[in-house]
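for the record, two folds in this file. i put them one after another cuz i was lazy. first one right below, seq on top, structure tokens after. the second one comes after a little note so u can tell where it starts
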Amino acid sequence: MPAGANRRVKGLRRSEVAVLAGLSFEYYTRLERGAISGASGQVLESIARALRLDDAERAHLFDLAQAAGPAARPPRRRSSKSYVPHQSLQWALDAVTAGPAFVRNGRMDLLAGNPLMRAF
């Protein structure tokens, strides 16, 4: 990578390592932050090549991935039971009569709503 004039420190940036390794920036960032359990040998090899790791450093990278791999399990699926809002929450939503009102969770699932929202 060519040296830029606006660099405060020496070395590669995350985005440059990702490009050299042939990975997306987001995936490389997840790996760098420790989510290495699902990384394949090819991915680890490309990272080692991009970073020019020596044999000991490469072995350490693969050891980290192996330690994270077998023990790590995929996230459990949530149960499919439907959410029942607390009665006071439903009363508050039903009190909104000027327009639709609803509650969502972090996954943007619709959890509860007033009659205008259901009609909408």
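(here's the note) second protein begins now
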Amino acid sequence: MTFTISRRGVLAGLAAAMLPKIAFSQSASGTVVVYTPNPAQVVDAVTEGLRQIEPGISLSTITGGSGQLLRRIEAEAASPQADVFWSSSENTLGAFRQLFEPYRSKELSAIPETLHQKEDLWSATITHVVVAMVNGNLLGDIPAPKRWEDFLDPKWKGKVAIADPNNSSTAYTILWGIEQLMGKEFLEKLAGNVLVNSSASSILRGVAQGEFVAGLTFEANAYAYVAGGQAEIALVYPEEGTFTSPEFMALIKGAPNADLGRRTMDALLSKDMQIALLENTFRRPSRNDIVVSDHVDLPALDKIKIFATNEAEAAAGRSDFLARWQGYVQGAK
């Protein structure tokens, strides 16, 4: 079954307006430095939530692409400058596992065992669903897409975009999953039609502002534009199936403020924070005690055709995949 979501009168409020009131902590205070590829509205929601859950902790955030930030942590390994990396897919984190130290959060019991990292090197914060984000005003004579196969039509050449998987874990997750679902030959053909742009956020802006007809992205990021009032934006869950990708955060080895970093991670995994993120930024929680449809107008996972992928295999095959993808892109020029 194909699902297409467009605006149905839902408007996103500011993060601060919908956050629950939470009892204050009385523990030690200080600043936690977080490296994050998350967009501004997500950072704002977490910053506001943390003020209520852990009023003694201030966040200092450095943003950028996940690959860029992980390489920065690697370069700083002898003298770490950040406490927490938040967040990326396991298929990306796996190549940087030496940069993190184990932490088993007190909130982990509410997170399914399938999302646990056996060494507790990272913890699942949310679960993404891969979608196509489509600007209906720009379709013209192109039929609205329903399947992955539709994007191989010559009419889509130069009109569908994705971020560079070398810098974006979002793009790597999507392209690797597409290859697993549709095969290498499909991926090579897709490389001939897609525009590769610098970052995941540029894909969202490009579709919303009319630069691209469609972009391959994560559900939560795209739905923010639907909820924000852009009736021309639709989310397509392809009928061949799509795939989910949990995002994980990790405590940086040798973190300057490790104890505060652990408390920050606990706060991010708390039920109140995950509900706030769901209601304000549409990120599906990693916790199993939150019903998504009670809070936002998104389909339940059991209503979407999901293709299972193996994040560990994606991590192990990252270098080979990126080299192959680059070859496909160069060959299509």
